[in-house]
Amino acid sequence: MNKRSSKSENELLQSGDVTPTCDNHLIHLDNVRLTQSQILPTDKAQQMAEIFGVLADPNRLRLLSALANQELCVCDLAALMKMSESAVCHQLRLLKAKRLVSYRREGRNVYYSLADSHIINLYSSLAEHLDEV
């Protein structure tokens, strides 16, 4: 666990909010059995955690937000992000490794876009969720 996430978790734990728990410790076996067959397998949970880990960086999320609207070349992304092309390429490489973005080459330019509608929906849903809060 990195220091940033552990600090954030510690702040939540120390905020004084108490998580409600059951007063009566009765296990509802029918609910447990029903849910047990639907719970996420460990290997898939690990893969999802790795993707969320890649998305846990503000610069990568800002890149996704730019690409949510249209395909952009590396030069345009660097100008938008006020970062070097090298730094943008590094972030895009991580996003590409998790299949969150795809690219195409046109002449000397490389254009990036979100990989598919699932990534667009994930980004849009989270942005909408934050707008509601």
UniProtKB/TrEMBL annotation:
Which SUPFAM superfamilies does the record associate with it? Winged helix' DNA-binding domain (SSF46785)
Which residue range or ranges hold the HTH arsR-type domain? 40-133
Entry-linked InterPro entries: ArsR-like_HTH, HTH_ArsR_DNA-bd_dom, Metal_resp_trans_reg, WH-like_DNA-bd_sf, WH_DNA-bd_sf
Q: Which residues cross the membrane?
A: none
Provide this UniProt record's keywords sorted from A to Z.
DNA-binding, Transcription, Transcription regulation
Lineage: superkingdom: Bacteria
Pfam families named among the record's database cross-references: HTH_5
- Regions annotated as coiled coil: none
Matches recorded under PANTHER family: ARSENICAL RESISTANCE OPERON REPRESSOR ARSR-RELATED (PTHR43132), HTH-TYPE TRANSCRIPTIONAL REPRESSOR CZRA (PTHR43132:SF6)
Descriptive protein name: Helix-turn-helix transcriptional regulator
